[in-house]
Design goal:
The chain is an alpha+beta fold. It has ten helices and 14 strands. The chain is 31% helix and 21% strand. Bound molecules: 2-oxoglutaric acid and fe (ii) ion.
Length: 351
């Protein structure tokens, strides 16, 4: 059955309604870049030498033996999906009611937090919808539904309970990985500094849905444009649809989803503290290979404390708050994130 009504009106014109005979007959266009196997890291047997090589060469890996129960991840995916599948108007109202805790968006997440100003042309727009929740805000969501008939509130409270548990696992994974990566860099970190890099108060969960879009509308549209994450570490859980791509050398490569694993990538902050030894990998999400099904994913982003000063031999000292403000300003003025080069004193971009 079509879930067209759950989409923002601006997406309905590009929606691939699988129920309609015209599109049901159409073959999905599988124009895709070559696939690549990314390295696998076993969280239970962290080999520092391998981890170092992977961080230098790839900046991304698949994590196995992570200890997150499969049932929990599936439940988190299901509840997130069912929230996004609510009729658009109800969904807006529900998220608006808890506005300061959850931010709903579609289009470019960094710009259109309220979902406004989506250009009508699908090309060059992020064809994605979702919401984000700071970890620290989960506890402010309804704990249990107030009345039996309020199915939506109860979805939200289930989301809270499941996400709190999932968030604890993600924080545990982030801590182990950060610890191991810091050792591979011979960084001597005090407890205070370690917790400033892994601030749970600024950690962020993002939940995404990439709509199925029609062949005509797909064109060159991307689910998410090429970017590097601003995080310390990002932990991604995707469904089985595929579409995530990384840039290696000068080429794009698709990454095939593998059940019960997470994809971990290093962000800009990790690149900066490694003095550019490790890389914040460029990645994107393609939608056109994926037109007959939706794609769902969610990311846990480990961010440093906002006012903690990041020091690096390659960049001028900056706080995460400054970094984020610069990213926003660049998106407004040049249309895309510039990121670390903005803080490189040798770059012509340095202000
Ligand atoms: O949805 C995905 O698979 C990737 C999302 C992503 O790259 C991000 O949120 O930074
Ligand atoms: Fe990303």
């Amino acid at each position: 059955m079509s879930n067209r009504e759950s989409y923002p009106p601006a997406y309905r014109c590009v929606f691939n309604d699988g129920d309609s005979p015209a599109t049901a007959e159409a073959e999905p266009v599988l124009i895709q870049d070559k696939d690549i196997d990314i390295p696998v890291i076993d969280l239970e047997r962290l080999d520092k030498k391998i981890l170092r090589e992977v961080c230098m060469e790839w900046g991304i890996f698949r994590l196995e033996n992570h200890g997150v129960p499969l049932a929990l991840t599936s439940q988190v995916q299901e509840i997130s999906k069912s929230l996004l599948n609510l009729p658009y108007e109800n969904k807006r109202k529900l998220f608006d009611a808890v506005n300061s805790q959850i931010t709903y968006f579609y289009g470019t997440p960094a710009l259109n937090q309220s979902g406004d100003a989506l250009p009508t042309r699908a090309a060059n727009v992020n064809v994605v919808e979702g919401f984000y929740v700071p970890i620290s805000s989960l506890s402010k969501l309804p704990a249990s539904s107030t009345s039996d008939d309020d199915a939506q509130q109860s979805k939200l409270s289930s989301f809270r309970v499941l996400m709190e548990e999932y968030g604890r696992h993600a924080a545990r994974i982030a801590k182990s990985l950060f610890e191991a990566i810091a050792q591979t860099l011979n960084l001597e970190l005090s407890d205070d500094i370690r917790s400033a890099y892994l601030s749970e108060s600024t950690g962020l969960l993002r939940v995404y849905r990439y709509p199925r879009i029609s062949r005509e509308a797909a064109g060159e549209a991307l689910g998410m444009e090429a970017h590097r994450d601003s995080s310390v570490i990002s932990i991604l859980k995707e469904d089985e649809s595929g579409g995530l791509e990384i840039m290696k050398g000068e080429e794009w490569f698709g990454i095939k989803p593998v059940a019960n694993t997470f994809i971990v990538n290093l962000g800009d902050i990790m690149q900066a503290i490694s003095d550019d030894e490790y890389i914040s990998v460029k990645h994107r999400v393609k939608t056109k290979m994926n037109m007959t099904t939706e794609r769902h994913s969610m990311g846990y982003f480990v961010l440093p404390e906002r006012d903690f000063v990041i020091k690096s031999s390659k960049y001028k000292p900056f706080t995460y708050a400054e970094f984020e403000a610069q990213v926003k300003a660049d998106i407004q003025s040049v249309g895309s994130k510039i990121g670390l080069p903005r803080f490189n004193p040798n770059s012509p971009l340095f202000l």
